[in-house]
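User: I'll paste a sequence; please echo it back and then give the predicted structure.

Assistant: Echoing your sequence first, then the prediction.
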Amino acid sequence: MQFVDLLFLFIIPALPLITGISNSLAPLGGPLVIISLQLFLGATLKSLYLIFNKHLFLTTPWLNRSVSAYETAIVFMFLFSFLICFGYLFASYVERKKRLKLKFITSNFNFTSENKSFILLIIGIVSFFIVASIFIWKRGLLGRSLLDIIIGANISKVDKIEGVKNFGNTNAFITIFFVLPRTCFFLFYANVIKNSKIFIYKLGFSVTLILTFMEIILRGKRDAFAHVFLSLLIMAGFIRKKIMLKEIRTYSLFIAVSIFLFSLITYLRGSGTTSIELSNLNYNKQFLEPVLASTYFTDVNILASIIERMENLQFMYGDSYLMFFTGLIPRAFWPDKPAISLGLFVKSQILLRPGTLGGVPPTMPGEAFINFGWYGLGIALLYGYLLRKLEAFLLRGKLAARGIGIYIYSIWIVPLTWSLMQSSFAITMNGVVVSLGIALPLLYFASYKSKAYQRVKILR
């Protein structure tokens, strides 16, 4: 790796980090900081890790790309990062005269009442056990011990692609309803931050966190640990405007438990074992390699493979983005609905591994290149612009004053931003639209008209 390549790899995540911290309406730099983290983990850290683990090139299909394709991918990713920031700053410039008004609204926001927060906690706990029971029943694990359920749910876990033979039964319709308890738990957490010294709130938060971890383990969604952590962090930033030093211990414990559970899920999925031997956990094999030598995050290696292979393939010219509309149609009404994820295309056409289970996420830069080649850089410009407009829409006026905008921002925009950078557009947006539609009644129930809501018309 040349010095120039290494320099670019550090500039790529630095651009959105600096832009977000200096311009975001949200605490902690907002979505651009999440994009920065994705780029750092997917490009910078992975490249550095592979320098010291060259043996992985021999066993990992998505690392089977030429040096020239890798260098081209670095340039493309740098331009993609730059244009996201440019689009974001352009939208920010247009709104500059409204910036003080936006800050006023978020600083005068009141969260849901205490009575409602405990009602939401009860709804969350009850809905969790209902959805979890149906999920366990559909997996054929009903009646087994908790340990057997955890093991069985993970050794049978395969990321399936809808619309492909033998891949139809994804249980997606069931798992989408986990959004109900998750939303209730986050809404309750808003009051936990305000009343962190009261025992009943501490107890309630402990219960919600345990059940959230249990949901992640059952579903085998390892990157959801990052979603939850970042969402909690940003919601705390909205309420307190800063992160308290005494909370660092809690967040550190959260990260430590997440790493352990991530490694455990990887161990169960990879070994096919029917028992858990904690002594067999190897954090290099079950955590570092699955993260840094995989297709997690905005992976520069996947982008390099896409750039190299697309020389011999036809561009999609926007078809993968239009799959969003077909994805909204339930398979019950369209049994032969085609796959809405690019994962299978990447695995079969880019990595040349047809017939194998699962898919490989294309990443946002990769999907843009698959559709438009170098013209796909325009997607970055559009994404940055829309990201800022969405941020302003949620954090100003009536939506913010009622609390709905801030709830949506904390609970949905974080995982949306995270997933869009590493997954395909259609499948990510379908999940967000459906889950938001399910949870919207809870958001309206939790919100109420604060003093800021009454003064919105004066500010406009």
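The chain has one domain: 3-459. Residues 104-109, 158-170, 450-460 have pLDDT under 50 and may be disordered.
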